[in-house]
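User: quick one, fold this
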Amino acid sequence: MKFRFIWIGKTKNKNLKALQEEYLGRLSHFAPCEVVEVRDSAPHETKEIEGERILAKLNQSSVVCLADVTGKSLSSHDLAKLVEKWQNGGLKEIAFVIGGADGASRQLAERSDLRLSLSFLTFTHEMARVIVLEQLYRAYTIIKGFPYQK
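Assistant:
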């Protein structure tokens, strides 16, 4: 199973970029990972246009998990159970999508298999990237029984 991370723009904050790379490295010990950065929207572009750019980067067979404030909340242990279910189900690719500042387009939300809320709190997109990566790494440490999870 492979993880594909699709998000808008580049991570500009050097500290968050370092954390992103750290957790990508850790996570890649458990599953192949790919990051796809979709260019930022111009001021006149809508979230629908942005959504079309994201949809163009998705593989047809991917399970799509969209970070969405109105999505489902999972504990770290629930996420670990879901990751394990995906693995045992023989899924080839899970795409985690973090959209732009205006949220996801209707088409992108409809294409998503899971809409996942990271928190009731609001995070910058750069922080959300690190949180997703860290939580997936944590999920694997839970699955494998490693001490990191505690």
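User: anything notable?
Assistant: The longest helix spans residues 125-144.
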